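Priority: medium. Attachment 1 of 2:
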């Protein structure tokens, strides 16, 4: 797709963004492309390599291509050839769907698997090259107020700033979400996630294929796929667990703990988990979809607006879609308040559907029938029948944030 930077004259409006994650930086780049002045505020003292793998489906990758980022991303993404289901104890395989050329033909954009840190680095580099204002670090937006001219907001250092509009892309624990929507604490879902990375040269050739694999089992599932241009295998294990509530993405665990949860699974799973250099664990939290993101010249987006469980691999893609739709709304409407209201009206139902269907997938992946040898094969064959798979995923991939009616 042809890059469309500089497509409008500078509008003279300045938009502030709280948060320099995937959603915040993609939004900043999308706004720069529409001619806006952008200031990005990030609470961290440095921007490092956080998290592990992400799956960028066509609804996300087409936005990156439009922003002229495909060449830079080609150095670090792992293009996916397909996805498959495997049985937790026997290793039996079912093809979920083809990707690669089939994905390009059907949806007009690729399906990429990428390390979060690599994607973030590409976005940050592009922002630094295209903006005259660097990301401001150690700058947490702690409070915001509407003014006659737009919005006034305070940082953690006590300084006060102004902008025509303020976008809260400050994540699942967004301060601004709490201010706009009131007491709205995320609830523990009863699911514990393990994650880690394995150098691909340490694992058997059969497990190095450029596919996303979803191992399903009673009360747990495991997802694996290559990242960093095929150099690393991303491994995530989700298990039902009560009474553990830490949400840190950097809480280390041990291989003994990990194998207490998955040591009875297929040898391929055990071998991968033993090769993880350092396993980390975190509690998965969720919220019911809630309206009210847009309030005058302040608006939530990304995880601050619609946090989701990762079971449709759409959390990052929703933030990327948000970025494109937000920039188009701001370019069309005269005031940020009008643009933000239209943005919420356009995005609420889709994101609510993704949040709800992600939760449904957790039940599908963990179904108790998977513990019964007599029922498990019939269950998987039925649940991942090709027509059901198309209904589950095509509506996600077909969505085009660049062309929907604004």
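Attachment 2 of 2:
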């Amino acid at each position: 797709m042809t890059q469309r930077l500089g497509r409008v004259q500078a509008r003279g409006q300045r938009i502030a963004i709280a948060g320099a994650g995937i959603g915040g930086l993609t939004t900043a780049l999308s706004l720069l492309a529409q001619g806006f002045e952008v200031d990005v505020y990030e609470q961290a003292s440095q921007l490092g390599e956080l998290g592990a793998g992400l799956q960028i489906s066509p609804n996300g990758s087409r936005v990156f291509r439009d922003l002229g980022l495909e060449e830079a991303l080609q150095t670090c993404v792992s293009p996916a050839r397909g996805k498959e289901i495997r049985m937790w104890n026997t290793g039996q395989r079912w093809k979920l769907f083809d990707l690669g050329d089939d994905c390009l033909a059907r949806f007009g954009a690729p399906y990429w698997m990428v390390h979060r840190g690599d994607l973030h680095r590409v976005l940050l580099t592009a922002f630094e090259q295209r903006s005259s204002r660097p990301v401001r670090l150690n700058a947490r937006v702690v409070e915001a107020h509407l003014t006659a001219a737009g919005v006034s907001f305070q940082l953690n250092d006590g300084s006060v700033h102004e902008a025509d509009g303020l976008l809260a892309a400050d994540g699942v624990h967004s301060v601004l979400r709490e201010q706009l929507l009131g007491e709205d604490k995320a609830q523990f879902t009863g699911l514990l996630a393990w994650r880690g990375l394995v150098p691909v040269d340490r694992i058997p050739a059969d497990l190095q294929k450029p596919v996303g694999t979803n191992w399903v089992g009673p009360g747990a599932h495991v997802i694996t796929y290559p990242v960093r241009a095929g150099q690393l295998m991303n491994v995530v294990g989700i298990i039902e667990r009560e009474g553990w509530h830490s949400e840190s993405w950097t809480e280390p665990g041990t291989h003994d703990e990990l194998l207490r949860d998955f040591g009875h699974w297929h040898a391929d799973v055990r071998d991968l988990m033993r090769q993880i250099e350092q396993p980390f664990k975190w509690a998965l939290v969720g919220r019911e979809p809630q309206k009210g993101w847009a309030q005058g010249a302040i608006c939530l987006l990304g995880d601050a607006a619609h946090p989701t469980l990762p079971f449709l691999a759409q959390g990052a893609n929703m933030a990327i879609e948000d970025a494109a739709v937000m920039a188009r709304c701001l370019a069309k409407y005269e005031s940020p308040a009008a643009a933000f209201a239209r943005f919420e009206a356009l995005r609420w139902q889709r994101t609510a559907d993704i949040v709800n269907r992600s939760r449904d997938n957790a039940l599908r992946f963990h179904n108790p029938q998977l513990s019964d040898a007599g029922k498990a094969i019939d269950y998987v064959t039925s649940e991942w029948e090709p027509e059901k798979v198309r209904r589950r995923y095509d509506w996600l991939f077909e969505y085009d944030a660049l062309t929907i009616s604004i």
